[in-house]
Amino acid sequence: MPALAEVIAALEDAYPPALAESWDAVGLVCGDPAEPVTDVLICVDPVAATIDEAIETGVQLVVAHHPLLLRGVHGVPADTPKGALVHRLIRAGIALYCAHTNADSANPGVSDALAEAIGLRELRPLDPHPDGATGLGRIGELPEPEPFAEFVRRVAGALPRTEPGVLGAGDPDRLIRTVAVSGGAGDGFLGAATAAGVDAYVTADLRHHPAGEHLETGPDAPALVGLTHWASEWPWCGQASAVLRAAFAGNVNVHVSARRTDPWTIRA
């Protein structure tokens, strides 16, 4: 069975830490690199629900997309929410590794997983790095054009259900062929999506004023599809699981979290 350090090496080969944004906190949060790993749980959020699942499943490693300790801390006492999670992980002998914006920019990465889930092909970065292959967001094409209302239903059917659901903003009859996507909060790329000339832009956490002002720029502005943050990034869990299964076939059991950690739980 591989050591934790070997599993981390496979993850960092797929999602190089050098691709992370300067403000980000990626890598090993807790755990002994020398300890063996037989089971891994992959999730979007390292929260109580997924730590419960990790303990129940008997894994030695949780791979999460979102960092647990994004901002600097001076301690992790067990009477704080995040400190309590660190203590639970250590007591259970479970390591935590986070791949955040490095997984966003990798090729393939978070937005590739979202694009592929909704059926896009011929992918390229929306906000490319100098190499042209890595970068944030993706642009792709549907196999055939379809009305915007049908496209919104396509997106909803491809992603796990959430209480807020999937929202569309645009002419229901507009034909959609080229699409930009960005897993996670992506209204900072509204201008890039418009400049790319796509028909629609799919992302999470769209805010009222930026979205409204975007649509007011004219009839050629991409139609918008709004998702919850968790749903937009959950397809990456399957992608990351494939990385580990390919690297450690037969030696590591890889589990994708089945627990919805989207914070919205009631729809009135």
From TrEMBL:
Keywords: Metal-binding
NCBIfam families named among the record's database cross-references: YbgI_SA1388
Similarity comment: family membership: Belongs to the GTP cyclohydrolase I type 2/NIF3 family.
Subunit note: Homohexamer.
Name of the molecule in the record: GTP cyclohydrolase 1 type 2 homolog
Organism encoding this protein: Amycolatopsis deserti
